[in-house]
Amino acid sequence: MKKYIPVLKRTQMFAGVGENEIGSMLSCLGARLCTYKKGEYVFRQGEHLNDITVLVEGNLHIQRDDYWGNRSILGHISAGEMFGEAYVAPESGALMNDVVAMEDSAVIFFNVNRVITTCPSACRFHALVVRNMFFAISEKNRKLVQKLNHMSGRTTREKLISYLSEESKRQNSAKFEIPFNRQQLADFLSVDRSAMSNELCKMRDEGLLEFEKNRFRMF
To answer: HEC string of the chain?
Structure first.
């Protein structure tokens, strides 16, 4: 687990905490490391969570399959991001979606009761971690609002423009990469893949953008 301390230091959860302090806090926070192969489930719909989790290697998708196997991708988790915090409150209920590894991944679980309760050793940075968690949850809510903005588009083009514009702004560049292939992007925006691909080609022909696989350039 120690090899992931530099990754944890870059996370929002441990912002302002030094690597030495993080190392000494791992036991205090009940940290445990789990690894997953590509395609394995980190969580399944219906599970109850007792841990706050941080992805320290790989990438994950939050997704849901309906009765007929149609898939919706609700979110993407990159290394350094926290997830599952919305389900650790006593009355939160069961997990509503699956969390799946898109490549070999490593996740650190932190016991929520130890995180939100000051430990007997009174770690100097414990209160800072709790504050950071509050800000991280606020950021998650902001991203949820962004997703709702994308989904509010009435047409496939409107949804594409909303999502691609936001990614360009987030990465501060007209050239950027997205974390989805074509099918995953269609699942994320809840649109038909063929219709989406046709719309992308129309936008390219109109000089609005260029693309190659998951790389885009906006004009």
So the answer is: CHHHHHHHHCCCCCCCCCHHHHHHHHHHCCCEEEEECCCCEEECCCCCCCEEEEEEECEEEEEEECCCCCEEEEEEEECCCEECHHHCCCCCCCCCCEEEECCCEEEEEEEHHHHHCCCCCCCCCHHHHHHHHHHHHHHHHHHHHHHHHHHCCCCHHHHHHHHHHHHHHHHCCCEEECCCCHHHHHHHHCCCHHHHHHHHHHHHHCCCEEEECCEEEEC
pLDDT 10s digits, 6-25: 999 999 899 999 998 898 88
Copy the structure tokens of residue 217. 């350039």
d(CA 177, CA 164): 10
Task: Taking the CA atoms of 86, 88, 94 and 98 in sequence, report the sign of the dihedral they define.
Answer: positive
Q: What is the pLDDT of residues 181-215, one digit of tens each?
A: 999 999 999 999 999 999 999 999 999 999 999 99
How far, in Å, CA of 13 to CA of 135, rounded? 9
Q: Is the pTM of this model over 0.85?
A: no
Spell out the domains of the chain, with CATH numbers in brackets: 2-136 (2.60.120.10), 152-218 (1.10.10.10)
Token duo for residue 122: 């009174």
